[in-house]
Design a protein that fits this description.
Radius of gyration: 19 Å
Distance between the termini: 50 Å
CATH class: Alpha Beta
Largest sheet: 8 strands, mixed
CATH architecture: 3-Layer(aba) Sandwich
CATH topology: Rossmann fold
Shape: globular
CATH superfamily: Vaccinia Virus protein VP39
Length: about 280
Amino acid sequence: MDTDNQMKELVRQKYSEIALQDKEANQASCCGSGCCSTEVYNIMSDDYSNLNGYNTDADLGLGCGLPTQFAQIKKGDVVVDLGSGAGNDCFVARAETGDTGKVIGIDFTEAMINKARQNAEKLGLNNVEFRLGDIEKMPLTSNVADVVVSNCVLNLVPNKDGVFKEIFRVLKPKGHFSISDIVLAGNLPDKLKNEAEMYAGCVSGAIQKDVYLELIRINGFKNIVIQKEKPISIPDDILSNYLNETELATYKNGTTGIFSITVFAEKPEEKSCCEPGCCN
């Protein structure tokens, strides 16, 4: 993982594999039955099944929160989902925004886009669309979205600052986002930080919590609120693939914490030229 492009290609390949599996195979490979936990991709997901709009075919269990539950979506809103996968959050958002709104999912994995479009077609939804594109350079015009959501995706992007700049660009003034993501307190062992599977599994690409929140602030967002936070515990049988017994004990007895946070922030309203000093 020497370059940003290599990291992104790693993620693209892994999530293409997941998209092409059927649901039962995906759950088995990620130990959805609870019998084991040999992969990291599904250990962080929350239960969507009680949310309106939930569709089991679109739920690959790859998230780390429920951002659409906290996103304050209103009827008629334009909602953009970053890293939309098979469409899970888009369909939940569609239940909130209704027939008069619009939901746009963006994903850079063609297999995921195809899967999401198939799911939308089966549901007969004509105001949900999926666009192939990079969230560091979104295929959207500026000031188009009322709400942006994302679930466990920004940690997979090397240039997180660039993504927050893009979110600011595409949001309307007074628009807002609700994003679930993985952040750190303390430092991961080098063997975990340098492991490709841990990067694709949303762990080693995570940054410090305070740095993450500062990126949001310096990109112009206001009213930043952590809506939910939960600790993430990586099972020993996963960690033992990368750490020996001594290293595992040191890690577990240390101060490093891995957390899922759901964070909300607003794009400020544009200043009117009628305000004092605006037209000087």
